[in-house]
Amino acid sequence: MQRSRDSQGILAALLVSGMLLGGSVLSKLEAQSEETRHVFEGIVSDAACGVQHKTADAKQCTLACVKNGGGYVLAINDVVYELQGNESEFEKLAGEKVEVSAFLNGKTLNVARITSLEQAS
Prior knowledge:
Layout: H1 2-34, E1 38-46, H2 58-67, E2 72-76, E3 79-84, H3 87-92, E4 97-105, E5 108-116
Parallel strand pairs: 3-5
Antiparallel strand pairs: 1-2, 1-4, 2-3, 4-5
């Protein structure tokens, strides 16, 4: 009988903990959705080169540097922001001028949308 009560107490504690944790995650997501997205224009580059590539072909340089461990960044004049999000989209747009809609967190952009600003030829 005592063992059954102990089990019920443990289950109740786990249930309450789970509800609190779930509520915390939910409130964090709600807070982020209430934050304002910012719109940036810049060049998709890599963390190693930033705003200054070592070769004339910005796309190839960016792809090579990312392959060697550098992450994707958005270079705006002399400022570089780390890009977080869909890396396959960043890869397609490497070296291109883009518009990014993102949540800003320090020097990191949590990308919601990214589109090329270059004319299709």
